[in-house]
Design a protein that fits this description.
Elements (H helix, E strand, L loop, with lengths): L11 E3 L4 E3 L2 E2 H5 L5 H10 L5 H14 L6 H12 L4 H10 L7 H15 L8 H17 L18 H11 L5 H17 L7 H11 L7 H22 L3 H10 L13
Antiparallel strand pairs: 1-2, 2-3
Helix pairs in contact: 3-8, 3-10, 3-11, 4-5, 4-11, 4-12, 5-11, 6-9, 6-10, 7-9, 8-10, 9-10
Length: 267
């Protein structure tokens, strides 16, 4: 039996004649009036974002929607090949691959930057101070044998084109905050520690931007998955028009060769 005060929610609720969402009439005030990106932000933050916040948030969604034949896309296509009656299965399979190497970097970077910032008594006052902080952070990560989230890319080794654009949009809208400032400083300072220059990747700058928007750190990967859902729908739509999953399967199957077993050591 429900508690006496019921189950309160500020999200969706309905009665016989109306549907309410975020305190507004869904049919009258939301449908046709609020874009999906704005609504997604509003649902998570339970406050309506400014136009600048919407632009940055939607730039993040666009940046993470699709990145070609990544493991998430291949998995979705192969699952669709195996179970064409289960679009939800293909989408779910692709989303389940959003981990520490793909998409999860968005959350990892946001959390990493936030942890550094919450440990400060005050924020650095200029670029030189930010660079000193970033150099210390990178050095401590290296000494601990850990990577710096958001630093490096397997393909865009000369620079991820999404990164400078995200900084530009956040600056134009006046919503660039300390997470983006620290991330930019990591990009400037890390060569002095690592002895080589690595790009700041798009997933990382998206995590920094989302953290500066004040969105819950626990949901940052969720926003990356929201973006990639659109990309996976596109992958499946293209698979219907121009299928490649069968060729991927046959290329692996045709290259299979039998080898002797490699047993695990006996305990």
């Amino acid at each position: 039996m429900a508690e006496a005060d019921g189950y309160p929610t500020a999200l969706g609720a309905a009665d016989l004649r109306t549907i309410t969402l975020l305190g507004h009439d869904l049919a009258r005030d939301v449908m046709g009036e609020v874009g999906f990106g704005e609504l997604a932000f509003w649902l998570a933050a339970q406050r309506r974002p400014s136009r600048g916040e919407v632009r940055v948030f939607e730039a993040v969604l666009a940046a993470l929607a699709d990145h070609g034949f990544t493991p998430t896309a291949i998995t979705a296509r192969l699952t669709f090949l195996s179970a064409p009656d289960s679009v939800q299965g293909a989408l779910a399979a692709g989303l389940l691959g959003g981990g520490s190497r793909f998409l999860g970097v968005t959350e990892d970077t946001g959390r990493f930057l936030h942890d550094v910032l919450t440990g400060l008594d005050e924020l650095p006052g200029d670029d030189a101070a930010w660079d000193d902080l970033a150099e210390d952070v990178v050095r401590r990560q290296r000494e601990a044998g850990r990577f710096v989230p958001g630093l490096g890319h397997h393909l865009h080794k000369e620079g991820d084109p999404r990164t400078p654009r995200m900084f530009q949009i956040a600056d134009e809208e006046g919503v660039a905050g300390p997470h983006l400032a620290l991330f930019a400083a990591v990009g400037r300072a890390h060569p002095r520690v690592l002895g080589r220059t690595l790009p700041l990747n798009g997933a990382g700058v998206c995590g920094a931007a989302l953290a500066d928007l004040g969105l819950p750190l626990e949901l940052l990967r969720g926003f990356a998955l929201l973006a990639r859902t659109a990309g996976l729908v596109g992958q499946l739509a293209e698979e219907l028009r121009n299928p490649v999953a069968q060729r991927v399967f046959l290329s692996v199957d045709g290259a299979t060769r039998a080898v002797p077993p490699d047993p695990l050591p006996h305990p």
